[in-house]
Amino acid sequence: MNNHNLKVKFLDLAVPDEDRHLLLAAIDRVLKHGRLINGPEVMELERELAIRTHRNHAVAVGSGTVALYLALRALNVGKGDEVITSSMSVAATANAIALTGAVPVFADLRKDLNLDPDSVEKLITRQTKALVPVHWTGRVCQIHEIVDIGKRHNVPVIEDASQAFGAELSGRPAGSFGDLACFSMNSMKVFGACGEAGAIVCNDEKTRELVTTLRHNGLKNREICTDVSLNARMDTIQAAILLQRLAKHEEVIQRRIEIANFYNERLNNCEFLPSEARNRRDIFYTYTIQVDDRDGLMEFMNQKGIETKIHHPVLLPNQPAYQPASGEWEVASHLVQRMLSIPVHEKLTTEAVAYIVKQINAFTKKASQA
Ligand SMILES: *Cc1c(COP(=O)(O)O)cnc(C)c1O
Question: How far is the CA of 90 from the centre of ligand 1 (A)?
Fold first, then answer.
């Protein structure tokens, strides 16, 4: 096989022809009925999301960031409070906490890049008002343990399930475990819109009502503003697109799992491979390996035309915005030097996947002999 010139993109957001026609038809229906905000597609999407996350309610919002912010507001988190979250996440997770006026406290990780429950429990104080575990890489974290910790200390749990729509643990879906859960459906996510989108899921009607008020400038009805908030509604067009994407979500997950299994079986000398355990289903938002010479491997892959990424090179507690940061992140500091995300998106060809394996194995073999 001569694959000199193979170029492998980390992500490919261009929409293939057959999907494009479906999306255009869905958008056209919205343009015709004209309910561009809070249209029937938004309500249909909310019903679907609630069913698929085993919840009573879902509230569609404009992004994953506002989903987290409004979920925290619904729990009355604010000034003087602390919220414990993962030291490894996107800025959005910590920003949502900080924007309420609360202080984000960063817990350490297990080797699978997800939260270490012991670290979470150690960081609980009288000020702790919520726990925000992240299901990083599209794998449900040790959520049973974290929910137990929350119960023991009487602290509610909000899952940041942004990367994990469709992931499962013990037959239960991501988003079904905490008091509330939040999703991002921005265009890079495995379940993504053609732009920005997010959702909050919950069980009680009071929370649904409050979040629905908060997502529309705190307006209880057309004229009465009961809460200081912002505009965080989802466009009907994005909801219509997401309904089309939802119909194909299972297919997308299956292809990602197939690629991940191929990597699991064939990659050599990588210390950690996110293998599929029996009681869980990971959806592989990212497939992240850990190697000693990470920067060397990244450069080597780049020379071979394969795009890789580090998700993310700066830990949240090291971000300038959250100084001085509190918590503990020793394991995370080690992992962040070694991790590399390789392409795992559903549009990869079998040839590309084999090419990626071949190049990584060539590099790690040389490294192990050096
Ligand atoms: C994507 C993401 C978010 C933010 O979602 P947006 O829709 O981009 O605002 C929050 N948390 C995690 C873990 C994410 O991956």
Answer: 7
Report the percentage of the chain scoring pLDDT > 90: 93
Q: Is the CB of 86 under 6 A from ligand 1?
A: no
- Closest-lying ligand 1 atom to the alpha carbon of residue 184: 7
3-state helix, strand, coil in the chain (%, to 5): 40, 15, 40
**Token pair belonging to 284:** 């592989």
Tokens of 302: 């780049």
Give the pLDDT of residue 367. Answer: 82
Closest atom of ligand 1 relative to the 136 alpha carbon: 13
Question: Is the CA virtual torsion 311, 312, 317, 321 positive or negative?
Answer: negative
Pocket test for ligand 1, best of 61, 63, 97, 162 (most atoms within 8 A of CB): 162
Please write the tens of the pLDDT for every residue from 251-285.
Answer: 999 999 999 999 999 998 787 666 666 799 999 99
Kindly tell me the burial class for residue 159, based on how many C-beta atoms sit within 10 Å of its own C-beta (0-12, 13-18, 19 or more).
buried
pLDDT at 1 over 60: no
pTM of the model: 0.97
